[in-house]
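Two entries, shown back to back:
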Amino acid sequence: MTSSNLQTRLQKSLGCSRQFLLSGLEEGEKRELSEKIVGLGAVYVQSETYKPACTHLICGRLSRSEKFLCACAQGRWVLHPNYINDSAKEGKWLPEENYEWVNFSDGETREMGETARRWRFHVEAFLTLPFSGWKVAVIVRGSRKSSIYTRLLSCGGAEVYKLTLPVGNKSRVANLLTYVFVGERNVSEAQHLIEFGIMCLRPEFIGDYILKDPPPDPLDYLVRQDMTSSPKVNRPVDIDDSITDIQFSQLTSVGSASTHTDKQYVTPDSFT
């Protein structure tokens, strides 16, 4: 059985129809592609943020963006715009495999295309997500970055908890949470967690876990107590928020379609 058939069976089992998100495209091209999507009977999801109900992400270019990373985390199709154009010419949806970005790229871009295909294979074969089993909290100054980390972690199957700082019951946090992601400007606020021995990591680990094969060692991302006073060093790009379609809002589902990963695991109660 082909991978395309497996993906179709998976979508049917989840009650999904084809729902398309677009990324990294000019407005004119977005408009043209969206008309073709609707003309072929699928759903065009017009959104500046990632929506977990989507089944296909069409990218004009690959970058370490929210939409790309979330699509990888959910094992979605990440395709070249030619998929829409060629399907429209044929008047039917063509098999997706020939239009995966890995077939249209080289160098670093090819590596990102391979990442998308690798996670798609993983999710199809094992029905598990990259962050399954993780229980995490995000301590990052600024609602935009905090929101995108939360959405990415949730799309990847993690349970995201709120922390009220300072944490009184540090033992409970240490026993429950797998990781606490701490932004560089928040190290002083998380100092008591670091000193207690709780696994506090730089947020770059989230994106790197998706992109790198094999996955990176979390110990390489430990937040050090002296980070705020150390000279600033050049680090890999975390999540690219420079593209116009990368905006930040709370995670919501799209339309009536549901998926096995569209629930945002944020507990109503905070740790104190």
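entry 2 starts here
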Amino acid sequence: GNFRTDSGGECGVPTAKRFLPPKTKQGNYTSNGVFWYAYSFGLVRTIMISSEHDLSKGSPQHMWFQHELKSVNRTTTPFVIVESHRPLYHSKPYWADNAVGIAMRAEFEDLLRKYRVDIFFAGHYHSYLRTCDGLYASKCSNGGPLHITVGTAGAQLDDMNLGLYDNVWTQKYLGVWGYIRATVHNPSLMLLEFVNPEMAQWKTPFGCIGGEKKKGDLRTALFANL
């Protein structure tokens, strides 16, 4: 998470020293500790990238990321999730932060669509935001992933008085504490839950509820209140 100045710039050191993520090699490029790596759990392939390191085209991280996406076996892991500290899309009028997201889109958003990434999770902003599904190049239902920002695990929440700037892709925004829980029921159904005990409705079905749908139809997501 982003806890502003309380770490003196060393917020990643304890994690880097205490945790050893899986090491993967793609071509001539390898993962990099806690900063970028990938792992499979059940039907999901999760790829962690670092928005705080070089992600420009041709960089070691970008090359590893591209090879990692290309190598995913969609038969054994039909769901692909990418996680990053910073989001590619957010509607809060923090213009310096938004500029970083726009720059990230220019470097690798094409890869998310090309390799059919399902969900892009991020934090950084201390709020919950869900975009429309299929978001690519600021257009909904355009072949991209669903983007969810959930930086609400306990730090001070963003100032709700600032509001949001107008766009076509913001579907839901909340300024409350909570976290995401994902339950994969089968190769074509994942249930996302924004867990907040004070809210009566906090389930977001991703995929089809009731009846079967082919994996190729997953891009049409059905949502409850969140």
